[in-house]
Write a structure and sequence with these properties.
The chain has 265 residues and is α/β, with parallel strands linked by helices. It is built from eight helices and seven strands; from the N terminus they run E-H-E-H-E-H-E-H-E-H-E-H-H-H-E. The chain is 48% helix and 15% strand.
Length: 265
């Protein structure tokens, strides 16, 4: 894809590892200035350094996307540093509270619900609230939200995660309507299993819970796809690049699966 983002600023939440980090690096390779945030300072500092070592421009900001004042400060600092916010990638997410990833709702401490809701759904809404005015002033922008294929899978013990990832799709559709008159397109990517540290950790915990080898558990998830594989972070990043580019000028309010045709489980 012959696409460049010179002179554009891309904001990526959860940009310290996995999909977010790979997206940040790819957009930087294509000329964009990058603002990344995460709750983990060491991760985003490392990611920003990798971007700069490769000749790009990056700013790292440690924050919680669920905290309104931190989001406002992050967006303000991004504009002060790079002059604009042109593309927003709402990638930050958690699957549950540490040590309690699979808990039926009746047994769930409700602070777990609040944690997941805050990062997975309140966060994208806050980021859009503060980023969109800068896009409106320019008369152009793109927002890319990340949902998850869990919305169509049997997923006991993750009511909070599934509900928020379904909510992201509704947010996407609403923002597409609100932004359209200002030249802002909002779309959603729905990944299946993606080869990241997060997935490895989840598979390791699940394998331990089921008392089976890690490789057997990973093969079971891969078997859900007729291609017998999981998606790479590069493949997700490439879809983001397309959705952020002028090549996708007619794509707005859409939720796109990227899952190697994996079946529902």
């Amino acid at each position: 894809m012959d696409t460049r983002f010179d002179g554009k600023t891309v904001v990526v939440t959860g940009g310290g590892k996995g999909i977010g980090k790979r997206a940040a690096l790819r957009f930087a390779e294509l000329g964009a200035s990058i603002a990344i945030c995460s709750r983990t300072r060491s991760e985003i500092d490392t990611a920003a350094q990798e971007i700069e070592d490769a000749g790009g421009r990056a700013m790292a900001f440690a924050m919680d996307v669920a905290e309104q004042e931190q989001v406002r400060e992050f967006v303000d600092r991004t504009v002060d540093t790079f002059g604009s916010v042109d593309i927003l990638v709402n990638n930050a997410a958690v699957v549950g509270a540490p040590g309690r990833y699979n808990v039926d709702l009746v047994d769930m401490p409700f602070e777990d619900w609040d944690l997941v809701y805050g990062i997975n759904l309140r966060g994208p809404a806050l980021m859009a609230k503060y980023a969109m005015p800068h896009m409106i002033r320019k008369g152009k922008g793109a927002i890319i939200n990340l949902s998850s294929e869990v919305i169509r899978r049997e997923m006991r013990g993750r009511a909070h995660y599934t509900a928020t990832k379904m909510g992201v799709i509704g947010l996407t559709y609403s923002l597409a309507w609100e932004g359209a008159e200002h030249g802002i397109r909002t779309n959603c990517i729905i990944p299946g299993s993606v080869a990241t540290e997060l997935l490895d950790g989840f598979h390791q915990r699940l394998a331990e819970e089921e008392g089976i080898p890690f490789d057997e558990l990973r093969a079971r998830f891969a078997a859900a796809s007729p291609e017998k594989r999981v998606i790479s972070t590069d493949e997700v990043a490439d879809l983001m690049i397309y959705l952020a580019s002028d090549a996708a000028s007619g794509v707005n309010g859409q939720s796109l699966f990227i899952n190697a045709a994996s079946a529902m489980q």
